[in-house]
Design goal:
It is a single chain. With 128 residues, the chain is α+β, with helices and mostly antiparallel strands. The protein is 33% helix and 37% strand. Helix 1 crosses helix 2. The longest helix has 27 residues. The termini are far apart.
């Protein structure tokens, strides 16, 4: 059944700026378009802090952080739940890796960082 859902994740301490930077970077990695809204099955639009659309997720998937910095994933997965769950998990993992990369950059400014995304994983390489 089609409905707009908001799923809270266990990922915390995420700023709106980090979310935006991480999702924009993630979008480039997976060939998605960044958007400010997502749609439900019936075409109704819902505003999100930042969202992604791609051919395999035409209604999109949204992301947001609350005042405490907790990440949420938002949207309607009807008709594409397997892909929606895959992208949701990858994006959450990408944001985690992005946070680690920022910490590594602060601790080791000359470190070489490389992040890449496969169909099922996010890989962060840090060479100090």
């Amino acid at each position: 059944m089609s409905h707009f859902s908001v799923y809270k994740t266990k990922l915390g301490n995420v700023s709106a700026q980090l979310l935006k930077q991480a999702i924009q970077s993630f979008a480039k990695q997976i060939g998605a378009e960044v958007s400010a809204s997502v749609k439900d099955y019936y075409g109704n639009t819902q505003a999100v802090q930042i969202g992604l659309t791609m051919p395999s997720l035409p209604m999109g998937i949204g992301f947001g952080v609350d005042n405490q910095g907790n990440l949420s994933v938002q949207g309607d997965s009807y008709g594409c739940s397997q892909e929606w769950n895959r992208v949701s998990t990858l994006a959450t993992n990408y944001i985690k890796a992005y946070k680690v990369a920022q910490t590594a950059r602060i601790a080791h400014p000359t470190a070489q960082l490389n992040m890449k995304t496969t169909q099922k994983a996010v890989i962060l390489e840090v060479c100090i």
